[in-house]
Amino acid sequence: MSKSLNFILPAIGGTAFILASAVSYANWNYGGEKIVGLEQRLKVVEERASSAKLAVSEHSKRADALAKEIVAVKAKSATINSGGIFAEPAPDRDGIYGLGRDALMAEIAAWDVNVLPDGRGLPEGRGDAYWGEEVFAEKCASCHGDFAEGVDNWPVLAGGFDTLADEDPVKTVGSYWPHLSTVWDYVYRSMPFGEAQSLTVDETYAIVAYILYSNDLVDDDFELSHENFAAFEMYNKDGFVIDDRAQAEYSLWRSEPCMQNCKADVKITMRASILDVTPEEDGEKTIIKTDNSAVPEEGAVSTTVAVKVNLDPSMLEKGRKVFKKCSACHQVGDGAKNRSGPHLNAVIGRVIGDVEGFKYSKILSSAHDEGRQWDVQALSEFLEKPRSYFKGTKMAFSGLKSKEDITAVVEYLKSFNDTNPVEVVQAFVVDSDILAIDGDLEYGEYLASECMTCHREKGGDEGIPLIHGMDRVSVITALQAYREKYRDNSVMQMVAGRLSDDEIAALAVYFESLEN
């Protein structure tokens, strides 16, 4: 019995040892994996805590700043409510006003597109005038016209080379801008209107090349690129000087105002434009005259219109309207000047390419050397398809489609060949009740400030007439005719269209009171 127990007990003890060892190993393995998992979770928690700590710190700083601003606003509000003034400058914190945030470098780089006259900042690219004409027609012509002549009040980009010394110079890219970099920078940065920075680099080069071509500064096959850009010199490159008045002049005439013994009452008695205080060169005045000898009926006033001998007035009127398509580039009549195209006075019978001072295309210069002339047939064929008649002409106009329009405009141009005009009276009827309105002189003077922008005391360029001293009836008649669109001038139609009968009467009284 005892031997059996002695045998069983060791066996049991061995089994227990084995089981205990197995349990210990299992516990050790489980604890190791658990520790690794916990350590990983601890690391995540520590990272989150660190981020949260930073966020709390930032929020804490912002909260402190807002608290200070609230205190400052409350203090100033109390000052205002107590009768004080709120005249302190905006809060300055380390040189800034605490608004917004610092710009990112990528944001700065996106806007840093300025180009300097020496070519610095200019991206690589190229574009020629041919392609530029297509891009310009698509993206720019709606405002600036197909030939860069400007539409309505949008800027004219071409021409004006012989006007900078005039009273009203035409300042265009070609005639006035001294640096080509200004053109490139402005077009690329701000155009097209409403779609700024939508142009590619190459499109910008092409548009600038076309603008130069429109100003006759380059040939039609010219290509502008980053390689030849800096070498191009603008027409008016020497027309500007450094403004050194602050150093050279200000000290000579600047002083503290006395602010003593001032007049108690100051009254405007006359306008400088009327006093003519600025000396001008002698020149003929353009004066509108009316012929009241032939009045068709009571209250009607006839305006005198000069037309030429042996011409059909109805055809002339139609031709004048058709010529509007040409007038953006060509002028006719007294004082006509070269613009994007040459003036067309006495064009019938003139040698092609013979206007002095105008730079013609190679094809028209060749026609001039051959002695070819603008007769009625040649001019008619040219107006129908300019680019087919003279391949290589700079004139981008596609031509007149109607034979009747061509005949009318040629007839109209013929009227500027004759030097012996006769007068034809055309009557515009103004109602006698309108003529009887008693205009307010002082109100007329107030309204006249807009008129005098163009109608100056000594007349003006571009056929703008002198109206100082014009009789009351003539002024009323002219403005009523423009308002009813009987007389054809879009600017005057717009101005007169805003005027009432009483306002027209006031203007008439005022201008009649002035001495011409």
Characterize the largest beta sheet: strand count, sense, and whether it forms a barrel: 2 strands, antiparallel
Oligomer: single chain
Widest β-sheet, arrangement of strands: 1-2
Q: Tell me the structural class.
A: mainly alpha
Description:
This protein has helices at 2-81, 105-111, 129-139, 141-144, 180-190, 201-214, 245-248, 250-253, 272-275, 313-322, 362-369, 376-384, 386-389, 403-414, 432-435, 441-451, 472-483, 490-497, 501-513; strands at residues 126-128, 223-225, 300-307, 422-429. It contains 19 helices and 4 strands. α5 packs across α6, α16 (441-451) packs across α19 and α17 packs across α18 (490-497). A two-stranded antiparallel ribbon has the order 1-2. Residues 1-9, 82-90, 280-309 and 419-426 have low confidence and may be disordered. The N and C termini lie far apart (157 Å). The protein has 516 residues and is mainly alpha-helical. The longest helix is centred in the N-terminal third of the chain and has 80 residues, at 2-81. Among the domains are: 113-225, Cytochrome Bc1 Complex, Chain D, domain 2 (Orthogonal Bundle); 309-414, Cytochrome Bc1 Complex, Chain D, domain 2 (Orthogonal Bundle); 426-513, Orthogonal Bundle (Cytochrome Bc1 Complex, Chain D, domain 2).
